[in-house]
Amino acid sequence: MVGLDIILNATWDHIILVYTTLLISIIVSIPLAFVSLYSQKLEFIVMKFVNLVQAVPSFAVVAIMVPLIGIGFKPAVVAIMLRALLPIVKNTYIGLKNVDPALIDYAEGVGLSQWHINRYIRLPNAYPAMFAGIKFAGILANSIAVLTAFIGSGGLGEIIFQGLIGYNTSTLLAGAIPAIMLAILIDRTFTILERKVTPGYGHIKG
Known about the structure:
single chain, MetI-like fold, 9 helices, about 85% helix
């Protein structure tokens, strides 16, 4: 039987790993989506890279971190981030790009700078797609964080693997149930955040 304090500590470590990685992924992905708007060459490079990384099995991405970076928290963050880039970059890019050209022309006609166009027109238009990508990336990060226990990241993965190795169902569930609950929490958190920041969210959903 796994003690409650062990489960709580592992859950906290798991949360720190997932949300740290997700934050870094967002910080990296959104600028990549923006620069892809203004250069076809950069768009090709960025999309090819994120698609390539996504095509590699998660366990292989985690395993390759060991000879490249080592073991522990930082290699786990890099491994998870690489897998989380695609949904955020691609969805944000699609949302930014799919703005009515007439609206952009009008904004340029009244003298708005590219910064203001991106901030007040493109970005709000991209919120639904962007948040869908972030939610998917968060759920993906949560699942891959379990695998990174193999390289010493800590978290709920350690409890889950202990249960698997020892054929101990109660230990397995002690790690798996909090991980499932975190996935649901991530989905709900970003759904609520999207509702608060997206203009006309209720009308769109209704």
